[in-house]
Amino acid sequence: MFNISVLQEPESLASAVEMLKAEPGLRIIAGGTDVLIRLQHGGEGWSQLLSLRNVKELEAISLRADGTIVIGATAPFAKIFLDPIIREHLPSLAEAAVSMGGPQIRNVATIGGNICNGAVSGDSASTLFALDALLRLESQDGERIIPIHEFYAGPGKVHLRPGELLTAILIPRASYQGTGGHYIKFAMRKAMDIATLGVSVICRVEAGAFQDLRIGLGVAAPVPIRCPEAEAYAIGRPVSVSTCQEIGRLAVKATRARTSWRASKDYREHLVEVLTERAVLESAKRAGGHHAQ
Amino acid sequence: MRNSNTAGIATLKPLALTVNGKPYQFQADIRETLLDVLRERLQFTGVKQGCAVGECGACTVLVDGTPVNSCIYLAMWANGKTVTTIEGIERDGELSEVQQAFVDEGAIQCGFCTPGLVLSTTALLDSGRTFTEAEIRRELSGHLCRCTGYQKIFDAAEKVLHK
Known about the structure:
The structure holds 2 protein chains of 2 kinds. In chain A, helix 10 packs antiparallel against helix 11. Chain A is of the alpha+beta class. Among the domains of chain A are: about 1-50; about 180-285, CO dehydrogenase flavoprotein, C-terminal domain (Enolase-like, domain 1), CATH 3.30.390. The longest helix of chain A is centred in the last third of the chain and has 22 residues, at about 265-285. Chain A has helices spanning about 15-20, 35-40, 75-80, 85-90, 90-100, 105-110, 110-115, 125-130, 175, 230-235, 240-250, 265-285; strands at about 5-10, 25-30, 50, 60-65, 70, 135-140, 140-145, 150-155, 155-160, 165-170, 180-185, 195-205, 210-220, 225. Chain B is about 30% helix and about 15% strand. Chain B starts with 11 loop residues before the first strand and ends with a helix. Chain B has helices at about 35-40, 95-105, 115-125, 135-140, 150-160, and strands at about 10-20, 20-30, 60-65, 65-70, 80-85. In chain B, helix 2 crosses helix 5 and helix 3 (about 115-125) runs parallel beside helix 5 (about 150-160). By secondary structure, chain B is α+β, with helices and mostly antiparallel strands. In chain B, strands 2-1-5-3-4 form a 5-stranded mixed beta sheet, covered by helices on one side. In chain B, strand 3 (about 60-65) and strand 4 form a beta hairpin. At the A-B interface, helix 2 and helix 6 of A face strand 4 of B.
């Protein structure tokens, strides 16, 4: 039994937004796999809940006519993993989705919750950073769309305004068309574990050279990050093991890793270098690049 | 850990759900988990509480055919839904195909994880999808078993999924 005093269960986005406006103390719960654990451990400040489970319109995944992929904020990870649109166009997001938690968790945990709880270890974050994802936020004052990297404020903190809800994640066509991508999760166990490091890469290769490279890292700094120096270095360079090794070395420069009980700073930096190299090589292969030895 | 914080007062709401084919309707407390309701109120004690934080899978039940951890699933969320616990798996006193495979392969020792594992395996079988050996391991990875070392559990799952 949890310390819950209010449980609102709206059935539409419009009424959810209205309830949030009327009762600003409400906290949002979607899959509940983080919020209910918080409540199990005391859950100070989480006794008044607005549940999104009955707002079915927020679960859909669709491909718009302009090529934008729209992922509803409450789409569960299991649905994302199996969705034909995601598998065809965003395979690295499918890889990230199936690496998260275990099957029962993936059946209920939502991608929007994974973002809004602000965890740097969130398995979706690094891939959404690499994909230049946009977030659609809605309140009674209207809608705003912001790049995902502007949303993270610090460990466990995001720029969600009072009365505001994340409604969808948007991936424009230009972000994914013609790309190859790969997500590597490094953890102590192969399942049911939190990432020690998450590396997600998206790239385009033309005539054997990198034309576009985007590297998203989770658990390498207080918030998920990109690696601007490594990305810039790659452009125009041939897809080769030595290019990818240098990309790995440069990726470390973007990080602000710290020592925690999971791993030391030095070990995390080693992981960034090695796993970035591997993820970039695999992404280039998937993008159609044949690398020279 | 469970019931570590029962502060506050009861707020009751009507809850209607079907469990193992039988409809139930009563007033439930918004603070209750599906696990609380199934075990304490409806006496389906085949649903086990292990870790209470969604790590071990002992409390797994099927909600509209999908495995969920009932310890981190609000009872109110099951409103209007169909829940299957281990008590609803056998038919007319006969073990299901999955249950029989677990018995035949020696996949049961202390039995605490077994209800959840049988339910997850049943969901995989009912999905009609095909699974490689690696995918079976991945799809059963949300269950902890401290007795068997898992091999016999995978053998039982493969027996029904690779027949």
